[in-house]
Design brief:
Layout lengths: L7 H16 L3 H17 L5 H23 L3 H18 L4 H18 L4 H19 L1 H14 L7
Helix pairs in contact: 1-2, 1-3, 2-3, 2-4, 3-4, 3-5, 4-5, 4-6, 5-6, 5-7, 6-7
Length: about 160
């Protein structure tokens, strides 16, 4: 199993997700909350929140992917949960949810490839997580996320 070269944000996420996996019966919800929390702490006090969220999104997802991979958990579930958490966190801090969704999906695909997971499946799991989170936020947000993912993620993730 390959090890990702994680940033400080990625390592923090990895540790949070490992703790969530070990300490909870509901791994999916724990990963959603852990990634959401890490993203929100990362951008707390940052003047340009939108830019910070978009930059951190892929790193947060990468940390979750590595944690799941090392713990023997389903990487696809980790991707979906992490992207969902990142998108929810972006909404809560007022960042551009659609752009964050794209950054999170791109981060998921890159991380999946680095740990040897199927990148086409990574795209599927990541876009599903982004859309599910966007639907929970609202129908206009869901439509915006679907539209931006259709145009920017098209063709990515083929192994």
């Amino acid at each position: 199993m390959a090890k990702l070269s994680l940033s400080a944000i990625g390592r923090t996420t990895k540790n949070a997700v490992v703790g969530a996996i070990k300490g909870a019966g509901d791994t999916v919800e724990s990963m959603v909350e852990a990634t959401r929390d890490v993203l929100m702490v990362t951008v707390d006090g940052v003047a340009q929140v939108a830019v910070a969220v978009e930059k951190a999104a892929g790193q947060v997802v990468a940390g979750a992917v590595e944690a799941a991979s090392e713990a023997g958990e389903d990487v696809g579930v980790a991707i979906k949960s992490a992207v969902k958490g990142v998108v929810k966190g972006a909404s809560e801090v007022g960042a551009d949810v659609a752009n964050t969704a794209v950054a999170a999906v791109e981060g998921a695909v890159k991380a999946a490839g680095e740990v040897g997971a199927d990148t086409a499946k990574a795209v599927e799991h990541a876009t599903t997580g982004a859309i599910e989170a966007a639907e929970e936020i609202g129908s206009d947000t869901a439509e915006a996320v679907r539209n931006v993912l259709k145009t920017t993620v098209k063709g990515k993730g083929t192994k």
